[in-house]
Design goal:
Number of helices: 8
Structural class: alpha/beta
Number of strands: 10
CATH architecture: 3-Layer(aba) Sandwich
Shape: globular
Order of helices and strands: HHEEEHEEHHEEEEHHEH
Number of domains: 1
Mean pLDDT: 83
Low-confidence stretches: 1-20, 71-77, 211-217
Amino acid sequence: MFKQMAVLTVTCSALLVGCGSDAQTEQEEIVSNLIEAGFPANDIQIADDAVLVGGDGLVSLAASREMILVPEGGLEQYRSFNIVGPSVTKICVNPTVWFDGYPLMSQGLDLAIANYNALGLRITFARGPTTGCTANIIAKTNTLPGGQSIAAFPSNGLPGWIVDINIGVNAYPLNVSEQIITHELGHALGLRHSDYYNTSISCGRPYPDPEPDPENVGAVHIPGTPTAATPGGSVMNSCPSLEDSGNFTSGDTAALTYLYGW
């Protein structure tokens, strides 16, 4: 099975070793906020000086602060506390010149944008640069080990500012590029992994190993969507496979329509 990331899971104390003082202070606050918001400690990593949850969800300081402003609840899964506000109606995804240099990834971006636009949401996507954008996302490439692709969660009512796709994705069939970019754009809209509570469902083993989280306060179940994940059951599963179509399932469609439908 193709893996999106292979970051070594470490404890919170180990995350912060070797950081500069300013970066360390910011990372400490982000990690503290995530734990307060209900994210298991060993679901939090630092990779390339960025704080990640679930292996590919990039969390800024502002986003982490928003997460702890929301009252706790006993709901289960699917979106984070951070979603995109009503002022955002057109999101422009702007690939870098290096991203455009990988043909399957470039084509996968077009297919991912088409996936979202086919749903008729109040938010449309466009490939930039273009006009009329009320929010922008940068699509760039990385060479992180293990094939890791990441995306930022929303903050201040805006979508996550970046989707960062590993160049190794270009070596796989087009459906893999479509699947992973659609997945990462889902994080930028606030979606969490559908199997965050047991990533072995899509990854074959816990990836990373989640801690028990009986209150599930770090995730909010979206009404009308499944509360139990299945292999291939969502584009937001933690790990894709070569068999995934890259298209939304009925559960994905229900989730996005609930959050961003008219």
